[in-house]
Design brief:
Helix content: 40-55%
Largest sheet: 7 strands, mixed
Oligomer: single chain
Bound molecules: adenosine monophosphate, zinc ion, fe (iii) ion
CATH architecture of the largest domain: Alpha-Beta Barrel
Distance between the termini: 27 Å
CATH superfamily of the largest domain: Metal-dependent hydrolases
Radius of gyration: 18 Å
Strand order of the largest sheet: 1-2-3-4-5-6-7
CATH topology of the largest domain: TIM Barrel
CATH class of the largest domain: Alpha Beta
Number of helices: 10
Length: 283
């Protein structure tokens, strides 16, 4: 087995279509993958079709943007992509992201960047994210790279930044459960909390039903692994891993890059698959 359980497609802010993503994962030697677009399951049907045709094991997934002020991303694995509540949630978030992109563009225009909402909208086939605005800024010559556009314009405190409306982490977890999935905290080190704050906030989320934690992610330094392993063990959490790949050349990330670091990857991924199987048998 080789697994990468955190991958984005054009259904959100990735640059490969869902089908291309599955082929790329296969090309990178993966045998198990999850498609986890931001606030969207729109890429799952195409990914499933291609996965079936090429013998890739695919977990349908989603990455919900939760939290206020500080963003907290919750991965949902094994969700029913036809679940009405989940679809309604994604539709609402898509509209909110659209409204937010309009505001980002108008703030950027006020700051002297002449980019148009239409260009941003066209770049995003599904869910609009800051990377689409960043790409429009690069194309119009206001930044040298997507990373540069983020740093100059799109991070908190900069003129193009607009936060998303808040979704509580506990509501995100509940929605994933209602849709038949398992809820996993994405990239915990991106929360940039002290160890004690992280331990306590995770205990709170575990009491709200959090099922797992993504330990091996590009944002997790080797020095953080022991702490996260301890939190997972003490709270009986599933352990997952993924590259958070958004496309070739987007950030310095490749599909499957976390697999060599994922100690007990086969066991951890097997445990996730077993839990999903048992849950779905019960339905
Ligand atoms: P959004 O959901 O619209 O706020 O966009 C979040 C996405 O933007 C993340 O999933 C990353 O793909 C990307 N992103 C966030 N921060 C940065 C950054 N500092 N540099 C480059 N990409 C970033
Ligand atoms: Zn993204
Ligand atoms: Fe994320
Ligand atoms: Fe992600």
């Amino acid at each position: 087995m080789k697994a990468d359980l955190h991958l984005h497609s054009t259904a959100s802010d990735g640059t490969l279509t869902p089908g291309e993503l599955v082929r790329a994962a296969q090309g990178a030697g993966m045998t198990l993958m999850a498609i986890t677009d931001h606030d969207s399951v729109g890429g799952v049907p195409e990914a499933e079709e291609v996965a079936e045709s090429c013998g890739m094991q695919l977990i349908p997934g989603v990455e919900l943007s939760c939290g206020a002020g500080r963003e907290v991303h919750v991965l949902g694995y094994g969700v029913d992509i036809r679940h009405e509540g989940l679809l309604a949630f994604c539709a609402r978030r898509r509209q909110e992201r659209n409204d937010r992109a309009l505001r980002m563009v108008s703030q950027l225009q006020e700051a002297g960047c002449s980019i148009s909402f239409d260009v941003v909208h066209e770049m995003a086939r599904g869910v609009i994210g800051r990377p689409h605005v960043a790409r429009a800024l690069v194309e119009a010559g206001y930044a040298s790279s997507v990373q540069d556009a983020f740093t100059k314009y799109l991070v908190p405190g900069k003129c193009g930044y607009v936060p998303k409306p808040e979704v509580r982490v506990t509501d995100g977890i509940r929605l994933i459960h209602e849709a038949g999935g398992l809820a996993v905290l994405a990239h915990p080190m991106q929360l940039k909390m002290s160890d004690t704050a992280l331990i306590s906030v995770m205990e709170e989320w575990v009491s709200s039903g959090l099922d797992g934690v993504e330990i091996y992610h590009p944002s997790t330094g080797n020095q953080h692994v022991a702490l996260l392993q301890r939190i997972a063990a003490e709270n009986r959490l599933l352990i997952t891993s993924g590259s958070d790949f958004h496309g070739p050349g987007v950030k310095d990330v490749s599909i499957g890059q976390e697999w060599p670091r994922w100690q007990n990857g086969e066991e951890d991924a097997g445990r996730l698959l077993d839990r999903l199987c048992r849950m779905h048998e019960k339905l």
